[in-house]
Amino acid sequence: MRHLTAIQIKAVNKIGDLMLPGVGAMPSFSKTGCVQDIDRLLDYVPSGDLADLKVLLLLLGLMPRSFVAALLWVLERSIFSSFPGAGLMRTIRLGLRGIIMSLYYGHPIIHERMQFQVGVYLDDRR
């Protein structure tokens, strides 16, 4: 990993497992190993945002799972709120969900389980 420490990776897996715990044939976030692809995403994050993300992930990596679950619950409710800090909370929610969902749904194991295939239709060429 080029961007994150072991504690920060632990935080990503913790957040990912809370958002995507695995249901039926779909594995949990951490069971896919998709966190190994995080550098592919973080290479394009502006340096200021990456520094902020690293601080947040460091703190969440040190916090107990129950605290992280409570924080995610609050972040999810922020989309319905108009109090002064709600905008920042919605931004954090969007950033964390974007990373987690991109890693999970971009992973070949998940594509296989969803029977998802990407292809280009070329029969209409002239």
Molecular structure report:
This protein is mainly alpha-helical. The chain is built from 7 helices and no strands. α1 packs across α4, α1 crosses α5 and α5 packs across α6. The longest helix is centred in the last third of the chain and has 20 residues. The protein starts with 5 loop residues before the first helix and ends in a 12-residue tail after the last helix.
Summarize the structure.
With 126 residues, this protein is mostly helical. The protein has helices at 6-19, 29-32, 38-42, 47-62, 65-77, 86-105, 108-114.
Task: Please describe the structure with a list of short key phrases separated by commas or semicolons.
globular, 126 residues, mainly alpha
What topology emerges from the helices and strands here?
Layout: H1 6-19, H2 29-32, H3 38-42, H4 47-62, H5 65-77, H6 86-105, H7 108-114
Helix pairs in contact: 1-4, 1-5, 1-6, 5-6
How is the main sheet built?
none
- Give the N-to-C terminal Cα separation: 46 Å
Mean pLDDT: 94
Pattern of helices and strands? HHHHHHH
Into which percent range does the helicity of residues fall? 55-70%
Number of helices: 7
- The fraction of residues in strands falls at under 5%
